What does this fold into?
Amino acid sequence: MNRWVLFLGVGAFICILFSALPIRAQTSGVELKKLVQEWEEELSKALEGPKKGFAREYLKEAERYCELGDFESAIGAVNKGLILSPNDSELLWVLARAYFGLGRYDTAESILEKVIRSNPKRRLPALDLLYQIHLKRGDIRGQLDTLRQLYEESHGEDKERCFSLLIDLLGERWQSWEVEDRIKESLKCQRIELLNAVAEYVKRPTNGNFHKIASKIQEIERSIQQIGYKGGYAPLDSLMSQLRRPLYFISIGYKQIGREQLKELLTQQASREE
It folds into this structure.
């Protein structure tokens, strides 16, 4: 019934359009083209509501097919809906579930990423389905990453469920996981402080500023040794390794050479961060 109303409405609109053409017969080609574009825009706006309405009908149809396990028919219904309402995140959510039901995990994952970004309402269910995909593949890293997001964003029973799954996957490592994060955050700060000390020496190459760099390196090494952290933090490790050569030149009296190398090092570090 709704479709017939739509067709009648479109037909009436077209009749009005053509009935107006004789009035415009004397207009120039440019004016006529502009007039047609305006009519097309008005028609598109007029159809926007009915299109969304029909897309909702296809959504309901697709959800029913999913409940029955008829995933191929669900995909067909969703695709019809997407013609009327492209990028509809609710339709995409059902489409991802249908592809998951067919075992087409790569396609389902690609669609889920769009849903996670665009639909806050479906974000947690989509993350949960993404976890199921990683589980089916036996992808431990993927399971951990997805469960971690779910754990951080969930509440109540859902959070407890995520915690149980994380315990099963990680065992005793769970207790050290958050500690590792805090340590890495601390190492990031240490790297920034070390870079600032290097920049200060390059700006003012005094003995005092040189000793500040050396003292900062010793402080970082003591800190790492005290916490017994074996995970490492590559940007800091790389920086300390690159500092050895210019600091050696400065310590044996070749200050200008060492300073130039430090300048180059700061430029490299800045370009990486960009």
